[in-house]
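So, who can interpret the following?
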Amino acid sequence: MAGADLRLTVLCVPPLIPLIHRDLAMNEKAIGVLTGMTPFMLALFAIPGSLLIARLGARRALISGLVLMAAAGALRGLGPTVGLLLAMTFLMALGIAVIQPAFPSLARQWHPQGIGLATATYANGLLMGEIIAAALTLPLVLPLTGGRWEIALAAWSLPVLLTAAVVAVATPHVARDAAHPPARWWPDWRDRQVWLLGLIFGSASAIYWGSNAFIPDYLHATGRSGLVPAAITALNAGQIPASILIGAGSRRVIGRRWPFLLAGALGLLALAGFLDLPSDAATVAAAALFGFMAAGVLVLTLALPPLMAARDDEHRLSAGIFTITYACSFLGPLLGGAVWDATGRAPLAFAPVGVASALILGLSLLLRVPRPAAAPESARAAA
């Protein structure tokens, strides 16, 4: 549930972008900021989130983040004005930034003998949240809220509040052993793997967020607005097969270089198909391929902190990776929107997607994932 919540309040926005664009008279750069605000906050506050986890514990940080995310997400349409929309998106993303580094710690804490399964479950929940929000916002939630995008945004906060209540009631607080030294929280920026994983994950994330930001307006600009629901749904639904395949073949893919190389190649293939192939089916298939490759990198990367880091140190490694990752995720849509505004050429909004795919290919050649002595059981399971 908590994994799905990380995306429900965020991915309900892309289907509503044409309505928000119309009502608030936002240009493409502003749309890029709106879509990239969440990744930016995840980058900015991943390390403070790590500090909060070190002080409160992962469970309490999760509950606090869920409550903040739900409250701010519900208030985004209050007004509505561009300033309030961006301010509440800022606070909502702050809640997500607190939550995300907690999951690797909770995977080991709640399922010490099944870290891989716990990670796959969380990742699948996250991906299902993306699909549900993308698929149901226009055909179901928007009509139920009278066609008002402001109320539709607020409606997606209800399941987040429900999850916070369930976690608070159904899971126990685990006190930290007083004999252990205080948990560290500052990432080790000298670790080459933090930078490689952060930039690879960040490139895939920039592809995903950039696609969500510009596929709707690109299809409107090219006279194919009827494809928006199908393309956005395909973008998000395309992630599920990647997660299932990695879960089924985790022994062969977790901690390996070749799946990352494959993801970079698929990103370039999807970009060529989306921009160059004229058929509607090819456009939808290319959108699905964007989702497939981005999800593959996401699941492969999320599985690594519990396997690479020492116990009670997962959040620190995760915070470093997420800081780099979501800085890339913010810059990708922002640059894409700026290029579109400056040139007036819609296809150039996807230029960062091509650059990111090439980066995944290049950086993956340098990637090595060691088998940590701190988690031998999990490491052997992922070998």
